[in-house]
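Lay summary. Proteins are chains of building blocks that fold into shapes, and those shapes determine what they do. In this project we predict the shape from the chain. Here is one chain we studied, written as its sequence of building blocks.
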Amino acid sequence: MGTLYLVRHGQASFGAKNYDQLSELGQRQCHALGQALQQRGIQPAAVLRGTLQRHAQSWQSLAQGLSQGLKNPPVEPSEALTPQVWPGLDEYDSLALLNAIGGDPLPSHDTPEGFKAHFRRLRQALQAWMEGRIAPVGMPSYAAFRQGIVEVLAHTQAQHAGQPVLVVSSGGPISTAVAHVLGAPPATAIDLNMRLRNSALTELVFSAKRLELLAFNTLPHLEDPVRREWITYA
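And here is the predicted shape, written in a compact code that computers can read:
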């Protein structure tokens, strides 16, 4: 059996004009995860990632962590393994979802109340999108979004059976993949998505014909008490 390591990107820039940019903490989170995987003897045979900037930056930091401790590390860690870029691993557009669902203006998300209100509205928008009640501008249908993720899983099973494979993506695709493997309804993907932490590791074991959940939303690289303050969600 192979193992598929699904990694959510490190902390991005929530609240900034450009969310699609890792924070300094997000870079540290992913670097630490790479180190933890390397210490477990995990060197992926293939890497897949989405097209977003935070996916590319997360892989760069992961690759640096993975290369530490190797007898002959590459000069440029990112060249150790060229990732396959899959648009199907891209996140949904949360702003488009919020615009499509409408409602009164949200309070500033700089406060705890505003933060909660933002994600409460986002949950409602995700549900409406999944049920086909809204069609956010520039986004595919939920069925097409889900199909893009299923295709990544099928490709991995067909091409990399018996190998360790690393996927760098976002909360939406990862939670959708887990719901698909569990045979759970779309609403379950929302619950899973809202609990996913930055740089969290989800593991699936697979063969050409089987795909099973092994672990969800773990942080083996942040278990040290000194690093617990690195744990973030957005």
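What the prediction tells us: Residues 112-130 form the longest helix (19 residues).
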